[in-house]
Amino acid sequence: MKLSHRITHLTPGGSDGWEVFYRARALKAAGQPVIELTIGEHDIRTHPSILDAMHASAKDGHTGYAAVPGTEALRQAVATRIQTRTGVATTPDNILITPGGQAALFAAHTAVCDEGDVALYIDPYYATYPGTIRGIGATPKAIPAYPDNGFQPRASDIARHAKGAASIMINTPNNPTGAVYSHATLQEIATTCIEHDLWLISDEVYDTQLWDGDHISPRALPDMAERTLVVGSMSKSHAMTGSRVGWICAPTKVIEHLINLATHTTYGVAGYIQDAAEFALGQGEALEAEISAPFARRRQITETLLATQNIVKGSPIQGAMYAMLDIRATGLTGSAFANDLLDTHAIATMPGESFGVAAAGHIRVAMTIDDETYKSALQTLLDFATTKAA
């Protein structure tokens, strides 16, 4: 008996780049205290008011099968949110509710890529991107975005890879780099999509975590609404990571087919979860600001501490909950640095190499622990780097 090639080759070589994270979790399970600066998990939990709404909905009986496309009320709430933020006309018919952003990414690629098609994405990338593309039978191809350009992809690199591809996926504000793509960068991407007839998949789950610049949804650019699929989620904006509720915003003809796909795969999202998400969106920007505020503070802590030394360099933290730190002055790879830091100081970070080749010699720090512990851990990291560079 053998397993399918598709399932056994989601991550070639058996690695998904998360070995330091797994080591840190194993140490914690064995009883050793570890400071985790690894994954994008809020240090605060889902707001009590959202949980109250979830509980009330479940108690009222919304525990059976919910409408596969999503409840009409939640689809309307998402459509209203998107139209208000982007100025692009959006109706519930443009929205499919999904079990989180990851399921939305998988569904979006299923919609626009056939077996063997080339699907582009930007390197550095969130760790699941290439596996998601392989999972639907397409061929992933990375386009590098380098630190000397603030991790903004260059038009020439995009154009060089675009010929013959079916789609390109972008993520801004960006995980892992913290970059927010400029209007010029997004226009270059849009121009390439139009010239080469590409679908654009835009992962916008960090759209409420914006510290510098403007968040521009490429769906709002001229002639892009009919070729763009936007992925959103309640996970980052409302600290609802475990609730698994997200969406795809796309042309109605795409959503019609995606509803058929959902019928044959996820069969929708629990109704009481959707009701809680509708309630959360109804609280408006005040709640979103409350959820994002800790990361704005820790961004300032990061920039202040980085300015006290000259060994570790930081890329601009324009958005999201991460800092991408350049540790090449230590002479170590990102992987070696992260493993040594874990072994000597019980601080876990993610090697830049976990997110592709363009961030080699970097580490990603998740700003997801309380301010004082974060400040202390980051200072320890900087002191450690100084000793390595000596």
Automatic annotation (TrEMBL):
The keyword Transferase applies. It catalyses: L-aspartate + 2-oxoglutarate = oxaloacetate + L-glutamate. GO terms for biological process: amino acid metabolic process. InterPro entries: Aminotransferase_I/II_large, AspAT/PAT-like, NHTrfase_class1_PyrdxlP-BS, PyrdxlP-dep_Trfase, PyrdxlP-dep_Trfase_major, PyrdxlP-dep_Trfase_small. CDD domains: AAT_like. Its cofactor is pyridoxal 5'-phosphate. GO terms for molecular function: L-aspartate:2-oxoglutarate aminotransferase activity; pyridoxal phosphate binding. It comes from the Bacteria. Residues 33-380 form the Aminotransferase class I/classII large domain. The keyword Metal-binding does not apply. Its EC number is 2.6.1.-. Keywords: Aminotransferase, Pyridoxal phosphate, Transferase. Belongs to the class-I pyridoxal-phosphate-dependent aminotransferase family. This is Aminotransferase. The gene is aspC.
